[in-house]
Amino acid sequence: MSARRRGAQGSVVVLIVFAVLFAAETLGWVAAVLRNPFGPDGLAAEVLYFLGEAFAVLAPAAWFLATVWLARTPQSRDIVLIVGLVLLVPWPFVIGAV
Amino acid sequence: MSDLPPNMRDEDRVTGPIEIPPEFRQRSSSSVELPGAILPPPAPTQRRDWGSLIVAILFGFAFGWDLFEALANLVGLLNYAAAAGYRLNSFAWIVLGTAIVLPPLGYAIALGVGRRRGPARLALVLFAALAATSCASLTLEALVR
Questions:
Q1: Is residue B118 within 8 Å of residue B51, measured between CB atoms?
Q2: What ipTM was reported for this prediction?
Q3: Which of B2, B45, B51, B89 has the highest CB neighbour count under 10 A?
Q4: Is B143 exposed, middle or buried (0-12, 13-18, 19+ CB in 10 A)?
Q5: Which among B113, B122, B124, B134 is the top mutation candidate for probing chain A, defined by the most A β-carbons within 10 Å of its own β-carbon?
């Protein structure tokens, strides 16, 4: 097996690990949104608030896809993915769970 | 011919294709340099990317709404605090201030990353930033509550 082939496989493994972590954050946001009792008054405000919650659930997937699609090198891709993992921690869920 | 010194003999003249040293090669295959006498140089300005502009404006409304909401939260809490006769503490100021700073910051970073990459990529980057902003504002809201 050549070095390049090994590198490509390692990259795929790294990518799968990141995908699993981002999926876990998605589940955390789903739980946080389901547990969130807060909602503004009024239909329009409620719809927009729900939209924000839906965006929060979609955020890890969006970050993952955007990074994989736009990154120019594997190094920059991994760095941006790590930044996303840190930024998108579902804190409402984490705080609520403690 | 044979009485010439070795370094002046013509034996090692190039017969195959000439190997161009790397420093003289074209940097990219897309930009072929032609002598100016044959063709005028290409226009320095490229066509405006209308798709990206529309995407940026549409997402600008979404980010603008987030900013408006954050400002409304601050004003509402200030009024509430004034009516109750006390002042907002520093923690509330930090949380509400962060909520105001985040939407423009996310929009600017996403535009910086996604601009010049075409409308589809710009849209995905802007959506990722918008979604991350939603996550942040839900987190800040959970902190204040």
A1: yes
A2: 0.86
A3: B51
A4: middle
A5: B134
Chain B residue closest in CA terms to A26? B135
Rounded to the nearest angstrom, the minimum Cα separation between A4 and chain B is: 24
Q: Report the alpha-carbon distance of residue B30 to residue B48 in Å, rounded.
A: 20
Residues shown for chain B: 145
pLDDT digits (tens, 9 = 90+) for B67-117: 998 998 889 888 888 888 888 888 888 999 999 999 999 999 999 999 889
Q: With the CA atoms of B96, B99, B104 and B108 taken in that order, what torsion angle do they form, in degrees rounded to the nearest 10?
A: 130
Q: Given an 8 Å threshold on Cβ–Cβ distance, is A63 in contact with B128?
A: yes
Q: Which of A9-13, A78-82, B3-7 has the lowest mean pLDDT?
A: B3-7
> Is the pTM here over 0.90, yes or no?
no
Domain of residue B82 covers: 50-144
Residues sharing a CB contact under 8 Å with residue B98, sequence separation 6 or more, in sequence order: B136, B140
Q: Is the minimum CB–CB distance between B128 and chain A shorter than 8 Å? A: yes
In a domain, B30, yes or no: no
Q: Using CB atoms, which residue from B117, B127, B141 is nearest to A70?
A: B117
* pLDDT tens digit sequence for A36-92: 877 777 888 888 889 999 999 999 999 999 999 999 998 999 999 999 999 999 998
Give domain status of residue B113, yes or no: yes
Residue B139 with chain A: CB contacts under 8 Å: 91-92
